Amino acid sequence: MVTPDVLSNVTAVRAVLESLMSSQDRISLATMDQFLAEFNLALTKVKSPALPTHVRQSILDILLPSLALHFTAFSGKDYELWFHENLHLLLPDISAQGLSLLPLDLSYSSYSAIVQAFSDVFSQCSPQTSQNIYGFIQNVLSYQLRVSGSVFPQAYNNSQSYLQLFGPFLSFANYTELLTFYPAFNGYEVLERLSAQQLGEMMLVGGATRNERSAIRILIEMERRPFGDIAEFLARFNAVAQLQGVTILPDARVRALTLESIFQLLPFRTFTAQDYDFWFGHLLPLFLPSLNSRLLLLIPQDIDCRAQQNL
User: Fold this and answer.
1) Dihedrals phi, psi of 286, to nearest 5 degrees
2) Is residue 214 within 8 Å of 208, Cβ to Cβ?
3) Predicted local distance difference test score (pLDDT) of residue 18
4) Where in the chain are the domains?
5) Confidence band of 244 (pLDDT split at 50, 70, 90)
6) Hey, how many other C-beta atoms are within 10 angstroms of the C-beta on 80?
7) pLDDT for position 114
8) Phi then psi for 53, rounded to 5 degrees?
9) Burial (CB count <10 Å: 0-12, 13-18, 19+), residue 231
10) What global pTM score does this model have?
11) What is the mean pLDDT of the chain?
12) Alpha carbon distances (Å) from 105 to 21, 70, 152, 305
């Protein structure tokens, strides 16, 4: 019997679960259902419903191998019952090993039920757990593409609706992946939903470095973002440029527009010598050939010697 006093004691919880196992070290579906009903009820009776991470992980590590034996017979409704209700309070601490037990050959209704359950606990997940969940999403979509040549095409009809496949884990995808899973994807239709890193990659992959109008649309979106996003945008841009072997940007006008847009956002008055090194030595070199006297006037003249050297 699960009682409130054992909820924070991982040894006691494991003892309860191990007592439910058969001789094959498995727990029946009905027994797991009953255990989780008692478990969730007991949790409502304590003042704080938050469970220690190690308790949640321990429960999932024991239950999921037994539950996985039934996944082949599960419908979308079954996944909804188990992941939205029975396992809901445990999901924030699902491990990479636990995620690996989930099948890849899912119907859209089953996939949607699982992703929605993870989306509901997104705010409680650690960054690593969120990254692992995106890995599961990526594996399912890759499997669908490999087997059927498309990824749940009945679920969306444009770029906006396509992004629902990712839920709040969208930011973990790179822009190339978004195109791979849906070749008709158009990032310009959903600029506000893309992360700074995705936009930085899009500048190169989407051809904006050769198209002034496209570049302006991305730069206007970046000007609306918090200042910290600018560094992420440039870091991803530079990483993709390096992968593509780009050492000189193809359109001088786009290069100048990008430098001017970013330059006017830089808070030079608060810059340290390290900041000058970070921005001018690491983030902006591809754009610096477009530096002109007008932009140089934005840099304070009273910066210290170390900052001058880094600049």
Assistant:
1) -65, -20
2) yes
3) 83
4) 186-311
5) very high
6) 18
7) 98
8) -55, -45
9) middle
10) 0.90
11) 91
12) 28, 14, 11, 61
